Predict the 3D structure of the following.
Amino acid sequence: MSDVDTLKGEVKKLNARATQAKMDLHDLSEELPTNWERIPEVARLAYEAHVALVDARKRLAALS
């Protein structure tokens, strides 16, 4: 398996993770003010997931 194929698989997994984090953040916002204490944690997870996804996409573009 090539580096490009490996990175494509990583991007796919990171995209799923980022999408789930986005949905979790959205769900939390729908429930407010319930669980308002979780805002920093859920937002941090969404931020980190998207940072990782953008980085992986950049690395993939550099290899392509």
In short: DSSP finds two helices and no strands in the chain. Residues 3-31 form the longest helix (29 residues).
